[in-house]
């Protein structure tokens, strides 16, 4: 667990809108009251896929995710904002950076994590396809 005294405080990005925003709720925690990293990873995948689906005009699947490094814990009650930035467009794939920020109940904001994720456009049979 990171030393709370060195957690970097930040502001939410002002030049872009979050793709999704969700509250961290007690049902998202483990037996020790901490929000599961897996819960956060699933939400990051959702945010990245939502953006990629709009670009691909259809279904996408996640094919790669770089490492996650958590800068701060997620607390119950945090409002999480997920920002997606497209880094690269291929003929069949979209690579995006997904960043997560938490607005604490006390009004402060902390950067939680980021990951670079690659999505591939697929057809109804699950085969890769060209992006329209």
General description of the model:
The protein has 132 residues and is an alpha+beta fold. It has one domain (4-121): Thiol Ester Dehydrase, Chain A, CATH 3.10.129.10. Helices cover 15% and strands 34% of the residues. The chain is built from one helix and five strands. It has one helix spanning 37-56, and strands spanning 20-23, 60-65, 79-89, 93-103, 109-121. It has a five-stranded antiparallel β-sheet, covered by helices on one side. It is elongated and about 45 Å long.
Question: How do the strands and helices of this protein lay out in sequence?
Answer:
Elements lengths: L19 E4 L13 H20 L3 E6 L13 E11 L3 E11 L5 E13 L11
Antiparallel strand pairs: 1-3, 2-5, 3-4, 4-5
CATH homologous superfamily identity = Hotdog Thioesterase
Give the CA-CA distance, first to last residue.
44 Å
Global geometry? elongated
Number of strands: 5
Q: Averaged pLDDT, please?
A: 91
What is CATH's topology name? Answer: Thiol Ester Dehydrase, Chain A
Question: Concise description?
Answer:
By secondary structure, this protein is of the alpha+beta class. The chain is 15% helix and 34% strand. Strand 3 and strand 4 form a beta hairpin.
